[in-house]
Design brief:
Strand content: 25-35%
Distance between the termini: 10 Å
Strand order of the largest sheet: 1-6-3
Number of helices: 1
Shape: elongated
Number of strands: 6
Largest sheet: 3 strands, antiparallel
Length: 101
């Protein structure tokens, strides 16, 4: 996870404006959910009813995911998710990497 920043107090006007601007920019960057993401290594996604369980390691329930580097043409959909795992199923045999955020 991206850490939250603590404001630096200063009496210098120029430095104070710089701190405020950096705080604004960093806030916009850190509030983007996909900046707190992981790539799950190449995995074969099953076509069966139970799907394939991936351990994502986010420590929270994912808000989204994206297929990266598929080796075949297949539709992949989500069966379930929780704070440690994501269960996906595919329409055809496919090996993928999955970006989870």
């Amino acid at each position: 996870m991206i850490p939250h920043f603590q404001r630096i107090a200063t009496t210098d006007g120029i430095l104070s404006r710089l701190v405020s601007e950096l705080e604004r920019v960093l806030f916009e960057f850190t509030r983007r959910e996909d900046n707190d993401s992981v790539i799950v290594d190449t995995t074969a996604i099953a076509t069966g009813a139970s799907g394939t369980t991936l351990t994502h390691g986010l420590g929270r329930t994912p808000t989204g995911w994206q297929i990266v580097s598929p080796d075949a043409n297949a539709t992949v959909w989500e069966l379930s998710k929780n704070t440690s795992q994501l269960v996906l199923r595919a329409s055809a045999a496919v090996n993928v990497k999955v970006k989870v955020w």
